[in-house]
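Researcher: Let's run the pair from yesterday's discussion. Sequence first, then tokens, for each.
Model: Starting with the first of the pair.
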Amino acid sequence: MRVCLVSSSFYPAIFYGGPISSTWDLSKKLGEKNIEVYVSTTNADGNKRIKYIDTKEHIKQAENVFVRYYHEQLINIFSFSFLFGVFSDIKKSDVVYIQYLFHYTVLFSLFFSVFSGKKIILCPRGSFSSFTLSNKRNWLKRLWLFLFISPLKNKIIWQASSYLEKEDILFYFPQVDVKIIPDGIDVDSFSNSNKMDKKELLEKYTNKNFKKVSDVVFSMGRLHKIKRFDILINAFELYLDENKNAKLLIAGADDGVRNALENQIKELKLEDSVFLIGLVNFSQKKELLSNCSFFTLSSDFESFGIVVSEALACGVPVVVSDKTSWRNIERNNCGIFVKNQKEDFCTAFHQIKERNFTSKKCKEYVKDNFDWKIITNKFFTILTNN
């Protein structure tokens, strides 16, 4: 079987974080099952292009995984070579798997797939959320759905990464075929991380020495307003009233709000307590997750939230916003699910140290539900069912 995977960006473009890594890992896992995956993507990486990438043909990147990075004349706006090349890519494939929704790559690949009579799986990656549809050119997005997506909605198998995303899809398109398949992670790859003293960890990532450190709280995500790091910083200020030696590290590339967050940190006089440490690679992420006191995420919306599963795979309990899909963490005794308000986060920061969250429970939950062995089998079933 040959799958044409269409995505506006693809590994090693890591600007958009978790979804890129997850799509890359899924491609490799499918390749290991003797599924040929031909990726049709662009050379965009955020607001710049991937350097030193061949854009003329598909390049073998892993077993049975071949990627063509079509050159974009206008980054994130248009690629002539994609327009003319993706039709051929789709014709040669048995199944077309499309990522995202509001992008020209989706529009052309969806029309070409229907025209060619191909089986279509579409993963909207949060595109139906109220935040996405009410933010930035909302009228254009709704017109896009009405004109281009709605007429084809019943020709698509919709992949939702969580129950929240399934609800969002069905709200706009009742009775379409929706399958919940979350993003997966390689749980074993997060074991055996380098263990560090908290002071050593802070010195490595902040270039500062501290005499006393009580807690290291870690969060991660692109610095975008949807991630609500402003709530997290305000909550941490309250937490410092009784935990003056605690530190908060926030990792992620700037996506529009870094300056605002830096100003917030300065205004609250938190320069020695809260640190924006920028983009981190996989080994750094694993090191931070494995050595922090706990992980926290204050997003206004996450269709899934891969970094939460990664934290749990490292055996770290989590404090997560109720705007995300992680409502089962409390039932499984591996974290706290809270209202997305500073007071509630602050209270949870105190509570997480008092409750009996074990590393074993955290790892078991993510291993049993989100390991790639489980997720790949679910996706393989959708691919191969008629």
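Model: Moving on to the second of the pair.
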Amino acid sequence: MLIDWFTVAAQVLNFLILVWLMKRFLYQPVLDAIDAREQRIARELAGAAAKQAEAGKERDAFRQRNEAFEQQREAMLGKVATEAASERQRLLDEARAAADALLASRRQKLRSEVANLNQAIQKQTRHEVFAVARKTLAELASVSMEASATAEFIRRLHRLNEGDKSRLDNAFASATESVRVRSAFELPEAQRVAIQQAVHQLFASDLPLHFDTADQLIGGIELSVNGQRMAWNIDAYLSALEDEVSQLLRGNDKPPPPGPLDGAAAA
């Protein structure tokens, strides 16, 4: 078989031209496209890696913020719980203090009411006792008792202290009206004369004595001149005793004022 070298050469030339053309117009663009695609994929991968790293940073930051928030929440819950417990204790203390104050007020009020009731009972009892005593002594009074009262009255005139004697001296010296002498019963003439003589002897007075009776006097005699009074009677004694009892019941340590039995008293 004969070989046509011209044809072989022409085919080889055509093949080489085809390879050059394919490389020039086909393979190179494909390679360039592949390179471009690889570069784009590489850029996208790099971008994805960057985004993934950023996402990781954001995740870590979010986790840190979440942990900080949890810590703040726990701290705030603890603070609120502490404040609530403190407020609860304060309210309990205030309520307890208010209850104690109310209880103390009620106790004080009750004590005051009991004290007032006791005072009222004591006062009423005291008045009743002395009223009965006055009534009993008034019923037992007699003329003979008035005679004894006259003797006791004259004796007390002679035993006046200097102050009472001086006041009565001044009263007699400045008196322009008669001297008044009162008794529960009408005094006999002898007792009137005895009183007149005692007054004249003690006070050097010639003023007449005016005698009259007074139902409120119990077994005693009262002399009054120019606003000054000298008295001895059972009613005055009971009044002084009643005042002393009242002071003792009130717990008063001060000594009672001198009663009618201790000398003259101002009107």
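Researcher: Give me one sentence on the second I can quote.
Model: The radius of gyration is 66 Å.
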